[in-house]
Amino acid sequence: MALSDPVSSVSTTLPSVRQLLLVPFRLRTYGVVLYLVLAFPLGIGYFVGTVVGLSLGISLSVFLVGLPILAATIGGVVVVAAGERVMAQRLLGADVPAPSWGLSEASRLRDQVLTVLTNPALWGSLIFVLSKLAVGVAAFTIVVVVLSLGLSLLAAPRYYNMPGTSVGLFLPEPIQRELSLVVPWEQFEVGLSFIVRLTSWEVSTLPGALLLSVLGVFVLLVGMNILTAGGWICARWAELTLSPGNAGE
Questions:
Q1: Are 15 and 104 in contact (CB under 8 A)?
Q2: Residue 36 to residue 138: CA distance in whole angstroms
Q3: 3-class secondary structure per residue, the chain
Q4: Cβ–Cβ under 8 Å, residues 117 and 234
Q5: Which of the residue ranges 110-119, 126-135, 234-243 would you say has the lowest mean pLDDT?
Q6: How many angstroms separate the Cα of 34 from the Cα of each of 19, 30, 136, 227?
Q7: Could you give the percent of the chain with pLDDT greater than 90?
Q8: Contact 154, 217 (CB under 8 A)
Q9: Cα 157 to Cα 215, 232, 243, distances in angstroms
């Protein structure tokens, strides 16, 4: 059974502030996070297995040895695509029904093979499987940055005063910029100029650590919304490639 509050539901209006604030409290959000985290290791396995299988199968097909390898690789892509449909449905709420392969309409083995090879679902599945690595790298990077940065800031009051620990913003050297605005007026120039200077900031008090904790809440909130948007994109991509005949319905 799929999680409630599907990510795949399309809306033409922007989400309200209340909806954005409630994202961390929805079960669907953590389904999206799980999907994005799993995308990286699965993507590596999919890409390596598919590329190696196709390369060996095509290069050895002149000796007929490659034909079983090609068949096994294509069969593996179909099986992986079926599993990805289930994941997209349950974790993202995507609408990806199983495609019709039309094998019952072909009586001979040769016709069945041609039916499978010319089915858009097979090529869509192959595109999805090969693209899973790129999706996984991007998703894993965003998840790690959001969770590591947000949780470390959130937990600042727990470790800011530990021996040997430095918490804050540290710059190799101060940053100084002069901002000015000059407006010509008759024979004179009227202007305003001020200097902005940024230096390192070390948290050594509880109020400063609590301020970092509040910043961590904000980072997690924004990050969870970004991950949810990524889940929406993944749901759309799954519907487009894994169920091409139903896309746009």
A1: no
A2: 9
A3: CCCCCCCCCCCCCCCCHHHHHCHHHCHHHHHHHHHHHHHHHHHHHHHHHHHHHHHHHHHCHHHCCHHHHHHHHHHHHHHHHHHHHHHHHHHHCCCCCCCCCCHHHCCCHHHHHHHHHCCHHHHHHHHHHHHHHHHHHHHHHHHHHHHHHHHHHHCHHHHCCCCCCCCEECCCCCEEEEEEEEEEECCEEEEEEEEEEECCEECCCHHHHHHHHHHHHHHHHHHHHHHHHHHHHHHHHHHHHHCHHHCCC
A4: no
A5: 110-119
A6: 21, 6, 11, 10
A7: 48
A8: yes
A9: 12, 34, 49
Query: How confident is the model over 134-176, as pLDDT tens digits?
Result: 999 999 999 999 999 999 989 888 888 888 777 777 777 778 8
CA distance 136 to 114: 32
Q: Please give the model's pTM, rounded to 2 decimal places.
A: 0.78
Q: How far lies 92's CA from each of 27, 38, 39, 71, 237, in Å?
A: 11, 13, 13, 30, 11
Q: Which residues, including other chains, have CB under 8 Å from residue 215's CB and lie 6 or more apart?
A: 153
- Cβ neighbours, 10 Å, residue 64: 8
Q: Which of 25-39, 96-110, 220-234 has the lowest mean pLDDT?
A: 96-110
Task: Give the integer Cα–Cα distance in Å for 39 and 82.
Answer: 15
User: Do 216 and 151 contact (CB within 8 A), yes or no?
Assistant: yes
- Render the burial of 85-103: b for 16+ CB within 10 Å, e for the rest: bebbbebbbbbbeebeeee
